[in-house]
Design brief:
It is a single chain. This protein has helices at about 30-40, 45-55, 60-75, 110-125, 130-140, 150-165, 180, 185-200, 205-215, 230-240, 245-270, 275-290, 295-305, 315-325, 330-335, 340-355, 365-370, 380-385, 395-420; strands at about 80, 85. The chain is mainly alpha-helical. Among the domains are: about 25-145, no CATH class; about 255-410, Serine Threonine Protein Phosphatase 5, Tetratricopeptide repeat. A two-stranded antiparallel sheet has the order 1-2. Helix 1 crosses helix 3, helix 2 runs parallel beside helix 4 (about 110-125) and helix 18 packs across helix 19 (about 395-420). This is W2 domain-containing protein.
Amino acid sequence: MSQKVEKPVLSGQRIKTRKRDEKEKYDPLGFRDAIISGLDKCANDFEAISRYLDGAGSKLDYRRYGESLFDILIAGGILVPGGTISQEGEGPYKTDACIFNAPDDINLEIMKSWEQVFIKLMRRYKYLEKIFQDEIKKILLFVKYFTPSDRKKLSVMVSLWISNNSVPFNSVVVLSNSHLVKDHLALDFLIDVFKWWRQDKGVNSLQMAIKKSNIESHLMSFVPDTKQSQAYFRTAFQENGLEEILKLYNDQHQQQAKKELQNLLSDGLQEGKPPRDIISELKEFATRESIQEHETVCIIWTTVMSQADWNKKEELVTDQAVRHLKQYTSLFSAFTQNARSELSLLLKVQDYCYSNMTFMRAFQKIIMLFYKMDVISEQVILKWYKQDYNVKGKMMFVDQMKNFVEWLQNAEEESDSEASSD
């Protein structure tokens, strides 16, 4: 069996390395010096800055030093932990051709010129988009260490970058970092972003963007723990003319609270808690979260109806529904203490019976049950019968209720005649 014989190697022989395999030394300071030198020659000429950055990308390694590039364009130099400019190397360490050197008295046109610099740069070098988005998150964590005027300039730019889709809206969630929240910096910065956006593109644009990104669900995470209250939160937005955003938050918060109320009820029913305990818990929760009675009774209906495995035969489901609902009439009665709540429940039953075909003929029996158990009053039933609150299946349900309503009307007339004879 032949063995492979290694070829002799001359002592001191140099192994030739291909150029593409040679690793270039990492030199962010050299990159910084080159960029600063070029930017300083442009002064405050934004067209000149864009032309320089466009041409420099073919000579300087933007892919490798993208973070440093954006630090320089925003803060003037390379940012180090603590948010200060690096003083390494011979310098100069900082350029005046940067966002933080813009006038302290905000000029939106100047800030939009800077916006165009970034747009043109990332349009020319697409790979910079991801680097830029990551870098903004890092820079936002440094806002504590920037001067108030620099923070304001950054908030203007962040509003412009988010609105033009250079940066995703959820990038601002990094501001909920504890060291920024406790000093009120997170909420103040976010409010500034909202204010500049509203000023530039209007409140409708801001509302749509917030809803699309679901930022309203994170808003309370920007409020310091020591002031984690609805009152403080409302004041912060109202004083800055952002009532519309506050309404978005309230709407989202209400939806979440209603889900929690539904879960609370569902758990109570599955655990077999006494009705009085469930009623007490629901009232306490609804009061705390400002959920109205007419909203609560509709949640009760949905939850109670979800507890049963309904028969698929129309002729059997009516009796099943009456038996099932009879167990919970005290629960419904506790949350129909006014006409609006009664009518809301009646309309909820109408909508449910219309949407679930097997329940189409169960409507009358359910309403009669609620009438007999003092859940829905005759005044509300007659009001519903005469007026068109919900047209879904109304004609069929009116026909079902005709004899019962006539009986109610006759009973009412007899009662009136007896009262007058007395």
